[in-house]
Specification:
- This protein is mostly beta strands.
- It has one domain: Sandwich (Immunoglobulin-like).
- Helix content is 7%, strand content 24%.
- The strands form 3 sheets. Strands 3, 4, 7, 8, 9, 10 and 15 form a 7-stranded mixed β-sheet that branches. Strands 6-5-2-1-11-12 form a 6-stranded mixed β-sheet, with no helix packed on it. Strands 13-14 form a two-stranded antiparallel sheet.
- Helix 2 (175-178) links the parallel strand 8 and strand 9.
- The longest helix is centred in the N-terminal third of the chain and has 16 residues, at 3-18.
- The chain is globular.
- The model is unreliable at 1-22 and 253-273 (pLDDT under 50).
- Bound molecules: calcium ion (2 copies).
- One calcium ion binds next to loops.
Length: 273
């Protein structure tokens, strides 16, 4: 192996070790099959929002806590060949569970972006054929929290980080997610504290290992009115980890495999349990 390649491999190993587990969160669908290698999964989480105006409302929370955490988000994607209806599924953390409602089925190769608290997402462009919602009950603690998503077949996926100012030690999901349900895939445990303004993401999208999101190389305008410019952001709500759009060709079945369901880009509601 070339010396540079050896060095790169060593750096990659160090990076993975620094980032904790590289296990993948599992996948969920609308059927009763117990194992899947494609479907709905977590793709990116941004829990410490202090640098970028990701929801495009014209303000950044800042370390002074002067604003709510409205730039924090969770990105959920569909890597299956078919659209997947997530209405009736339960999204939860250590303190709250909420049932997803009024959503279009998530298209193959596309995303649902869930902003935390009462984020104003009217000016956020979720990208072609993606959807975005704001979830009042969802608060992503910087140094310790857990997220879970449960389908109507009684399976759930879960992502855990840190153990600090959120839930001390091991965080536990609310019963609405776990009671009588079975974990699909592995629980992702990510032990390192959050870096300000940097998300945790799969690379490549849908199936890759988890790590801190690399900074994008250009300026990005994800506001509908083009008023917000993000300079080399280290997160990508509604975009792939390289900043490009999601599209149908990314699903497991390849181009043209998806069903023809075209949601609009408007925001949708959810209901607290
Ligand atoms: Ca904002
Ligand atoms: Ca992304």
């Amino acid at each position: 192996m070339h010396r540079t390649a050896v060095a790169m491999a060593a750096l990659a190993a160090l990076f993975l070790a620094a980032c904790g587990s590289s296990d993948d969160v599992g996948y969920l669908r609308n059927d009763a099959l117990g194992t899947h290698d494609a479907g709905i999964t977590f793709n990116e989480v941004h829990a410490r929002a202090v640098l970028f105006d990701f929801n495009s409302d014209g303000r950044i929370r800042g370390e002074e806590l002067e604003y709510p955490d409205d730039d924090e988000f969770l990105e959920i994607v569909n890597s299956a060949e078919e659209a997947i209806d997530v209405n009736g599924w339960t999204l939860g953390c250590d303190s709250t569970g909420m049932v997803l409602t009024d959503l279009e089925p998530i298209r193959p190769g596309h995303a649902l972006i869930v902003f935390s608290r009462s984020a104003d997402i009217q000016n956020f462009d979720p990208g072609p054929d993606n959807q975005a919602i704001a979830a009042d009950g969802l608060a992503l603690h910087n140094n310790g929290d857990i997220l879970g998503l449960r389908n109507q077949e009684g399976r759930y996926i879960a992502l855990h980080w840190g153990g600090g100012d959120g839930c001390e030690g091991d965080c536990e999901l609310v019963d609405e997610v776990t009671q009588g349900a079975e974990l699909a895939g592995d629980l992702l445990r990510f032990d390192e504290a959050w870096r300000p303004g940097v998300s945790l993401a799969r690379d490549p999208d849908f199936e890759g290992s988890w790590g801190f999101h690399a900074p994008l190389q250009d300026d990005f305008r994800w506001s509908l009115d083009d008023s917000v410019v993000l300079e080399s952001p280290s997160a990508s709500p509604g975009r792939r980890v390289d900043g490009t759009d999601f599209d149908d060709t990314m699903a497991a079945g390849g181009p043209g495999s998806g069903t023809s369901i075209i949601p609009d880009h408007s925001s949708h509601a959810y209901s607290n349990l």
